[in-house]
Amino acid sequence: MGDFEDLKAAIESEFPGWLVWRSDAGRWYATRSTDLTDAELRAGYAMTVAADDSDGLRELLREQESG
């Protein structure tokens, strides 16, 4: 499971409600597929997170889930 499409599918399966993509520069992004409430935004939840690799992205998504 080394190519981007496999990793993307695995992350999106592990974290429903997030859409994953990778920039031309190779940076990994995930954005929520639904809007956050004002309270969630004030609590520090992000609409989009970015990391250098797929493992870093997973870590950020775990943090978003745990609040």
From TrEMBL:
Protein name (database record): DUF2188 domain-containing protein
Organism this protein belongs to: Actinomadura fibrosa
Lineage: Bacteria, Bacillati, Actinomycetota, Actinomycetes, Streptosporangiales
